[in-house]
Structures are given as C-alpha cells and as structure tokens.
Write a structure and sequence with these properties.
This protein is mostly helical. It contains six helices and no strands. The protein starts with a helix and ends with a helix.
Length: about 180
C-alpha cells in the first residue's frame, strides 16, 4: 500500500469518526454524518480502500477507541441495535466504489444513484440486525414494522440530503483525488 493510500484511508476513518461526533440523539439510532462519509470513502477511494477505511473505523471502535456516536467505543457495541448500520458502511462503501470509482463518464446522476443504493444497503443490513438484537438479545419484542419506523423511515429525508451532499462533493473532487499522485 502506498503512503498516499494509507493517508487517504486514515483520513476517511477519521472523517467517519468525526461524523459520529456530530450526532443528534433520536431513539436507538442517532442522526450522524457517518453514512455520508462512508459513501464518500467508496466514491473517492474506490471499493477496496473505501471499505478498508470503514472496516478500520469499526475495528478501532470495537477495540475501545471512543469513536462511535456519543463518544463511545468497545466490543459491547456488537450488541447494540444500531451496530448493523456500521457493518453496512463497509459493504455500502465497497458497492458505491465499484459503481463510481475511476469511471470515465461519471456525472452527478450516476454518483447520486450509487449514493442511494449505498444508503439502501446500509438499511438492508442495519434493519434486520436491529430487529434481531431487539427481539433476541435485548428482549424487547418489536415487530418488523416498528423496527422499520424507528430505524429507517424517520431517517430517509436526512439520508437523501446526505446522499445529495456526498454526490455533489464526489462529483467535484473525484478526479482530483484519483489522478493526483
């Protein structure tokens, strides 16, 4: 791995942590900027380095570095209902990176579609995980519709805004990051 790549991976690990600190508590899942930085990591670093930055973020948090939302960290986070969304960051970053990284005909529309797909992937992993943790670990019996409401539906407007911002930033920065060695 080149020095520039290590720096960029570390940068997006740090940006995701900063995105966690900019948090608005809202039930079990706070509103943060983490998902925006996970999408950007895939768009700007590519599928491998982007997902590596998100994996590193989660690893550091699980090792006890207080970089998760509410300045928390530690292995107990695996049992939190919102942890599935963090896992989704890795896969979303990879998929978004596959769709956008170093594409010659990369326009805002393509980036935005990739951002929406990445956001959907985060939900696709986060919601079932949340359902499982609530029902089989925490002991709160919640139906799937309730979990969808508290873990997805109230966040959709904000996540669309984050996808727009990430797409705009990526459309302006992508080629500069990709080709300036």
């Amino acid at each position: 791995m080149k020095t520039k790549e290590m720096i960029l991976v570390s940068l997006f690990t740090s940006l995701t942590a900063i995105g966690a600190f900019l948090s608005i508590p809202l039930g079990e899942v706070p509103i943060t900027l983490q998902s925006m930085f996970s999408l950007l990591s895939g768009m700007l670093l590519g599928p491998k380095l982007g997902s590596l930055s998100q994996g590193l973020y989660i690893l550091l948090g699980l090792l006890g570095v207080r970089i998760f939302s509410n300045f928390s960290g530690g292995p107990q986070h695996i049992f939190k209902p919102s942890f599935g969304f963090l896992i989704g960051f890795i896969i979303a970053s990879y998929v978004v990176g596959k769709m956008t990284y170093k594409r010659a005909s990369l326009g805002f529309k393509r980036i935005f579609i990739a951002s929406l797909l990445g956001t959907f992937i985060i939900y696709l992993i986060g919601i079932p995980y949340m359902y499982f943790i609530f029902n089989y670990v925490v002991g709160k019996e919640l139906g799937l519709l309730t979990v969808l409401k508290i873990g997805c539906l109230i966040f959709i407007p904000g996540d669309i805004i984050k996808a727009i911002v990430a797409s705009f930033v990526a459309s302006k920065l992508a080629k500069r990051v990709w080709y300036n060695s």
